[in-house]
Amino acid sequence: MGMKQKQEIFTVLGGRVKFIRGQYNITSDAVFLASFVNAGAGSARPQILDVGIGTGGVSLCLLERAPDVQITGIDISESMIAGCAENSELNGRKIELIHADILKWRTSRTFDAVITNPPYFKGTARAGDMHHNADLDAWTRACLRRVRPHGCFYCIVDAAAAGEVIAALHVGKAGGIEIVPLFGGKKNTAERVLIRARLNSKTGTKIYTGVSMNDDDVLRGEKILTF
Fold it and tell me: Residue 50, Cβ neighbours under 10 Å: how many?
């Protein structure tokens, strides 16, 4: 492999998951969300829908830990789908990819779990930044419609947007909400929030002790967030 080709590839999870450098490069959000997903829940081979799969960050990190899960990814961006297909091939993984808008996707399919790293920031996006200006209420409720009864919903959002997701979960008949704040640097307020909920659950909400976004064990894939 030549030097130029080496520079076009970057890795996460201690080098075990590879990505082609392009218009959207994954962040630690993907690693933390993948670490939070209980890949053994549901059926023997859990079927998971990754909403807004982008270039495959969350799903490919999850598949490195749980290679037997069956993942379907949906994204409104044709270029993101193409990038995800390339990254999947690079890692020797199979992901079913659907080019569609989750808010308009007409299907009867449901899944053991739905995972999502939605476009949560508000305001003008920088070039190549996909995480802006989604209607998180509509997005979350659309995700819940794809969850099987008693299946799970997982997401990571900016802490400032967490209330929108939680409110939508209540409307969508999800309960058993579990919240893990993620802290970066020396700030005493969370930057991101991991959220898990179960459809049709009547269990109350739990808020766990926060986790550092600089936790090397999580970033290297040596520790799973087992809450």
Answer: 31
How many C-beta atoms lie closer than 10 Å to residue 172's C-beta? 18
The kind and range of the H/E element at 75 are strand 70-75
Q: Which two tokens stand for residue 157?
A: 């959002």
What is the average per-residue pLDDT within 19-35? 92
Long-range contacts, stretch 62-70, CB < 8 angstroms, 24+ apart: 62/34, 62/37, 62/115, 63/91, 63/93, 63/95, 64/13, 64/16, 64/17, 64/91, 64/221, 65/34, 65/35, 65/39, 65/221, 65/224, 66/39, 66/40, 67/93, 69/39, 69/45, 70/45, 70/46, 70/96
Distant-in-sequence, close-in-space partners of 200: CB < 8 Å, separation ≥ 6: 149, 150, 173, 174, 175
CA distance 111 to 121: 27
What does the pLDDT read at residue 25?
87
Residue 74 predicted with pLDDT over 50: yes
Q: Quick one: which of 112, 79, 113 has its CA closest to 97?
A: 79
**How would DSSP label each residue in 140-181?**
HHHHHTTEEEEEEEEEEEEGGGHHHHHHHHHHTTEEEEEEEE
Residue 18, sorted as left (phi over 0), alpha (psi -120 to 50) or beta, turns out to be beta
